[in-house]
Write a structure and sequence with these properties.
five-stranded antiparallel sheet; globular; about 50% strand; about 160 residues; single chain
Length: about 160
Amino acid sequence: MSDDLHQPTERAALKSRYALVLLLSLSALFTLTGCKGKATGTATLSRESKNWTMHVNTCQSGQRQQYFGVGFFDEAQPQTGGRIALPEDGEPHVVLNVPGTDFAVRYNKSDCKVWDVDVQRTNSSYNDIWAMEGHARFDCETSEPESHATGDLKFDSCH
């Protein structure tokens, strides 16, 4: 009696099936967990005698929303978030969401007494979206509406 698993062609076919199952499993895991960028740091917003602090822990490439830059978020406070945009034409700026509202405050680079921002495209892309990395330190004020924002953030693999 012959054991089919001991035939060279049967073993090769079985290895191919295992490899295919492993590849599909890893693809499904990657798709389900998504591409999460790594971000660290804090951003604060003061407006109308209220203060919010966001502990940034995730980010994504601004290319998803058609701008060069990075969006950043605090997963524990989904109402917070912001973005740093470095447009080719126009002024670089940071935008912070005002928690509990549909409102966000935009600070142009000229509104900031500290603006140390370096966001760059990495050599990695997925689905034609480039991963971003860099850092941002800012201290900005605006009078319309009167508000103040600070941030010290680092970004890595923001896809």
